[in-house]
Amino acid sequence: MERLRAFGRFWYDFVIGDDWRIAVGVVAALAITYAVSTTSTSAWWVLPAAVAVVLPTSLWLATWRRR
Amino acid sequence: MNTAALALFGAVFLACMVEAVEATTIVLAAGTTRDWRSALRGVGAGLVVLAVIVAALGPALSAVPLRPLRLVVGGLLLIFGLQWLRKAILRASGYKALHDETQIYADEVAAARGADRRSRAGVPDWYAFTISFKGVVLEGLEVAFIALTFGSNQHDIPLAAIAAVAAIVVVTAAAVAVRAPLARVPENTMKFAVGVMLCAFGTFWGAEGAGATWPGSDAALLVLVPAIAVYALSLVAVLRKAQQRRAVASVPTLAEVS
Question: Which residue in A62, B26, B189, B247 could disulfide with B135, CB within 3.0 to 4.6 Å?
Fold first, then answer.
């Protein structure tokens, strides 16, 4: 059981890393890109916009915790 | 070599170099304080495991249709890239301590000195073997993923493999030459550059995989890479200023001291 937990922890650390919100933000942005791409509007801007929001938000949360 | 191939080589080479420096520190600590033979066997076993993973996943990735591959790989690269960039920005702005290979080496040496010496499975020192093995596999896994996904998306896994091997050779040669942890490698700068590349390629492939079409097609990467770099540098500048303001505010005034 402990090995299974360690295995799960390793993959969580490997994929999700220090801030789970980044992974959630990226997955949500990919879903929005897909949804927008099915309409007549161009969808390329969604991921750059997500990067512009997710990165400073994660940084702000990290530095806010250190204050 | 065209721009995409150059970017592929650069991203894999830098990512591999960063992880190779970290693995080398662990192996050096295990080898010098415990037993070089066991430590090097651990390195060999770790490289074999990584080679098996690459050999198994490489052809499998090539068989996956391009659009779902780009969706999954783009998403993962973007997550990795944002994590690398986040860490590099926090270090560059003074909110997180810089990666100190000398300190990590000292910690590893202290832990190695305190561990029992046991022989197992024909290996003279099991501790030196497992520490080296874990160091190589754990540090190498992310690089193997980056090399494979960059290589398969650009249809050039051999070039990605050459970049990875070249980085390992450079770091190993440097470590053998100085026989000490590679403390002078600008690890944070390299991590920053790789973070930018991973974010740019992750954004590009992720969006394509999700059904978007980039204006200018592949040329969009030539805008994405510098745009993300400038954006990340501006975040470093903003955080540095905030850190300085905090430092000034925390210095007690004369009235407070008296």
Answer: B26
